[in-house]
Design brief:
The protein is an alpha+beta fold and about 575 residues long. It contains ten helices and 22 strands. Bound molecules: S-adenosylmethionine (SAM).
Length: about 575
């Protein structure tokens, strides 16, 4: 017996297809209604599209009717010549497009600002092509403008030597994650990339101008239904204005190239700043000489919880992995840092917490024959997470940093002269993990070679010294004195700006794969509750009075009452002169 309706007696193919089309039309009207666009307005646009696409509904329905939406806004923009400009048509040959004109983003997001498609009015192929969508945005890909890296690009072998946290994190493949593929590549993403742990709520997008301002418009995109408050009266822009902003400003849907669990957007409404050129990497990668020795054999059995299963946080007796944090885990069952642990970390920078190297790698790299005395390194509290030798599963509450990003972050252009910054699009409770500081793992010497070779054209620099345990070592070899440099290869943390003393984030060292402390992860957590759209900042630990440092300190515009940069008008000299990191940005 067949179940094909076309085989049943009396089947009227014509009527059926009309019925299907009618229901598709109704659905299209409904989708547009959700955006506040009436059926009457949509009708002529839809009719044109159906004509142009030869009734190929798939092309119109794809990406939650993105083509229809674009065509609608296009028709509005060109109202005076509407009679000419019925629908987008391929400008080159005037033929009907066989494919959709726009390259769609995943997850039905706001139309991406990164594609440029040229179209001509239907009946006037002589007119110069007009850009239908956003202007084309240059690739983020590491380019020849990166003087230091371009002299010696990472070889495949070096890339292979990237840390295993890559695999541990999120248990998924990262096609091209550490490659130099451009962030704005129009190549469709690999279909196998699935964003795990992503609720529909996480798809919601709010976009604001800058700093702690409330969003000017917010768009719900998961089901293509917009938030009801899309009007200017309550400070939000209408969906029509969204189209305009996307055309005048620049918006990037996901700077991570799909390599993180969640997307990280970038918004620049001013177009005043050049796009940063760097290669997005979700986790640290060894550049060349760093000795990062990761092997299961180096983790003693008593240093892991091989007998555990499930979630270590649910045990009545904390397992071996809690020893590092005094027999208690750093995290509580809600995934946040425990209050006491966080408070201890925040209160760390006190004089007695500094240790001094016998021969400091930093001073040695400045002057090898006659190094200056060590300026001190802060003794840090570490978090120790369960890892591969442990019996627990990936959802264990003592595996937070290794699971990667889970918050909705956005890179935006600050208006205080600090360049790009980062904000969260959702409220973050105190103790939340925000992101890791990821970059190339360099030896201290490699870093200083880079600095010396730099012509100073890199306005922003991004090295962080991994010196949390230097003081306990007698003769730290160069290949063990490590730092992270996110200038050319880094993650979202490379955009987080500095704020003296009262920043809302704190960096905490995290031991994951290796028990020695030459190499560790640097994770950023909230020090207090942080509201959505507040700029995220951390204290780089710069000593603004150290004029011998090879990296010249920037003029601090953090605006804090506790700003340590005395050059800044009105800034007070800080009581707490921190030397937490020796990095200079
Ligand atoms: C890690 S990057 C942060 C992202 C950077 N704003 C950008 O546009 O790429 C560090 C650089 O940002 C700038 N910056 C960060 N915090 C700043 C502050 N408080 N005042 C002035 N400039 C700052 C400095 O140029 C510094 O070298």
């Amino acid at each position: 017996m067949t179940t094909d309706p076309r085989a049943t007696k009396g089947y009227d193919g014509m009527n059926d297809s009309r019925a299907v089309n009618d229901s598709r039309t109704v659905k299209a009207y409904d989708a547009m209604k959700d955006l506040g666009i009436s059926k009457e307005e949509v009708k002529p646009v839809l009719r044109n599209l159906l004509k142009v696409y030869d009734k190929n509904w798939e092309l119109i329905e794809d990406d939650n009717y993105r083509t229809l939406i674009d065509a609608y806004f296009e028709s509005k923009e060109d109202k005076p010549e509407e009679h000419k400009r019925k629908a987008p048509i391929n400008s080159q040959d005037g033929e009907r497009p066989k494919q959709k004109l726009h390259v769609a983003d995943r997850d039905n997001r706001v139309p991406s600002a990164v594609k440029s498609i040229e179209v001509l009015p239907v009946e006037d192929n002589d007119k110069p092509p007009k850009t239908l969508k956003q202007k084309s945005i240059k690739s983020f890909q590491t380019s020849s403008s990166h003087k230091l890296l371009s002299q010696r690009r990472l070889s495949d072998d070096e890339r292979i030597s990237s840390l295993p946290s890559m695999a541990a994190r999120g248990q998924k493949s990262y096609p091209g994650a550490a490659s130099s593929a451009g962030l704005y590549s129009e190549e469709p993403s690999h279909p196998s990339i699935q964003r795990k742990n992503m609720s529909s709520d996480q798809h919601q997008k709010k976009i604001t101008t800058s700093g702690t301002e409330k969003p000017k418009f917010r768009v719900g995109t998961a089901s293509m239904s917009c938030n009801g408050s899309l009007d200017a009266s309550n400070g939000n822009l209408s969906i029509k204005s969204l189209s305009k902003v996307l055309k005048s400003g620049r918006y990037v849907d996901d700077i991570t190239k799909g390599s993180e669990n969640v997307k990280v957007s970038l918004l620049d409404e001013t177009e005043s700043e050049e796009f940063p050129k760097f290669n997005y990497i979700p986790c640290n990668v060894i550049y060349q000489c760093a000795n990062v020795n990761i092997s299961l054999a180096r983790i003693a059995d008593e240093g892991c919880c091989a007998d555990c299963s499930g979630d270590c946080l649910s045990l009545s007796f904390p397992c071996a992995c809690s020893q590092e944090t005094g027999g208690e885990f750093a995290y509580s069952s809600n995934g946040l840092l425990k209050e006491k642990f966080l408070t201890d970390c925040i209160n760390e920078p006190q004089a007695h917490h500094y240790v001094y190297c016998k021969e400091c790698p930093i001073e040695r790299s400045k002057n090898e024959s006659k190094p200056e005395p060590c300026r001190g390194h802060l003794v840090r509290k570490f978090i120790k997470e369960c890892w591969k030798k442990c019996g627990c599963d990936m959802q264990c509450g003592n595996r937070v940093v290794q699971r990667g990003l889970s918050r909705k972050l956005q890179v935006f252009l600050t208006d205080q002269g600090k360049g790009w910054g980062v904000r969260s699009l959702e409220d973050l409770p105190k103790g939340s993990f925000v992101c890791e500081y990821a970059g190339e793992i360099l030896t201290n010497t490699e870093l200083y070679d880079r600095i010396v070779m730099s012509t100073g054209n890199d306005r922003h620099t991004y090295p962080v010294t991994l010196d949390a345990d230097w003081g306990s070592e007698v003769g730290l070899k160069d290949e063990e004195a490590l730092c992270l440099d996110a200038t050319h290869n880094g993650n979202v943390a490379r955009f987080i700006n500095h704020r003296c003393t009262d920043s809302n984030l704190i960096d905490i060292p995290v031991e994951v794969e290796t028990p020695d402390r030459h190499y560790y992860h640097l994770a950023l957590f909230t020090k207090r509750n942080v509201s959505a759209y507040e700029e995220l900042t951390w204290d780089y630990g710069i000593d603004f009075d150290d004029h011998t440092h090879p990296i010249k300190a920037f003029k601090c515009c953090c605006g804090s009452a506790l700003c340590r940069d005395k050059k800044q008008k009105g800034s007070r000299s800080a009581k707490t002169k921190k030397l937490k990191h020796t990095n200079r940005h």
